[in-house]
Amino acid sequence: MNPPDLAQIWVYLAQKPLTGLTLTLCAYVAGDWLYEKSGRNPLLNPVPIAIMLIAGLLWTTGIPYKDYFEGAQFVHFLLGPATVALAVPLYQQLETLKSSGPALLIGILIGSGTAAGCAYGFAYLGGASIQTLLSIAPKSVTAPIAMGISEQLGGLPSLTAVFVILTGITGAVLGPLVLNLTRIRDWRARGLAMGVAAHGLGTSRAFQVNAVAGAFAGLAMGLNGLATAILIPLIFALVF
Amino acid sequence: MIIRYLALILICQLAGETVQVATDIPVPGPVIGMAILFTGLLIKRGLPQGLDTTAGGLLRHLALLFVPAGVGVMLHVPRLADEWWPVFLAIVPGTLFAIAITALIMERLGRSTLRDEDKV
Q1: Which member of B26, B64, B102 has the closest CB to residue A233?
Q2: How far apart, in whole angstroms, are the C-alpha atoms of residue A200 and residue A218?
Q3: pLDDT tens for residues A153-212?
Q4: Which residues make beta-bridge pairs with A186?
């Protein structure tokens, strides 16, 4: 009897959904391990690490993204239910929302418009293509919502996910510096800005610094998601 | 993770997707589902412990959920190479500008309700 041919086993395994799913979880665990090892250095966010590990492996082995996604789609699918689940933290912060009055809502609405406007405007000035513009507009919104908006607009959800992650890292790393430079002395304003412009990564950074800032960031992230999901597609439907 | 609350979350999403398809409004189905669940919580005036646990379970590893889509970056390498300048402009100065403007406006708007414990 011949020993099993490794290449054949590989071809067989590469087509199995189990392989893509296992690869996704293992790469994320590896990324998370590195992140913890580095003392939670925001530059070593587990998501870009996992993405680079998987993309690198697929690229070297020549496995098409489509085959990988056969398995990874089981993780991807959970984005929908996770978006619905965002209603829970939003509800838990209801009292904070009420106590700050209309300032909070106006602040989030203006922030939401500024974040999307800056994304679109800066990319437009730089000469971006229409697909890139549509994909980058919702970049400050938390990933599951941003990808939904992008799909609705006719952008590329997977490209949007990349922009969202890069935005979150930028905000978490450089945001506090900007807030110091602009001399913002109100924790609520600092948190709100981080949540609006840099979603979950900005929020987790705000929580590390101050509890009030963290609560406002979380609330801002949720409401910004809702506001952007309603406003951007409407604006695009009216303008274009 | 409690199955009945997972079912509830899926029902909200399904309802949201149905509303989206039926009315053709430009808001993602899961976002409508989130609004439905939020409205339900407001009406019920209380968060069941099991729903908190189930939602927490889904959200604790939210970051993991966008790895598969993020790997799609490998399909976009030529685009990113071509358009690195507008992408950089939108992501780095764009995000930081949005943070500064939002914080300045919120600080101005919140001046009358600023408590001592909110001061830096």
Answers
A1: B26
A2: 8
A3: 999 988 998 899 889 888 988 999 999 999 999 998 999 999 999 988 888 788 778 878
A4: B119
**Residue A73 one-letter amino acid:** Q
Does the distance separating the beta carbons of B83 and A118 come in below 8 Å?
no
Nearest CA in chain B to A80: B30
Name the residue range of residue B49's domain: 1-65
Q: In this complex, is the C-beta atom of A49 within 8 Å of any C-beta atom belonging to chain B? A: no
CA distances in angstroms from A66 to A62, A92, B75, listed in the order given? 11, 39, 10
How large is the ipTM?
A: 0.86
Using a CB-CB distance cutoff of 8 angstroms, which residues of chain A are in contact with residue B47? 88, 91-92
Q: Say whether both B47 and B35 belong to one domain.
A: yes
Domain count, chain B: 2
Residue contact A157–B69, C-beta within 8 A: yes
Give the residue ranges of DSSP H helices in chain B: 3-23, 29-44, 49-60, 62-65, 67-71, 77-82, 84-109
Interatomic CA distance for residues A193 and A98, integer angstroms = 18
**pTM of this structure:** 0.80
- Cα distances from A53 to residues A118, A229, B62, in angstroms, run 31, 31, 19
**B48 and B30, same structural domain?**
yes
Same domain, B31 and B84: no
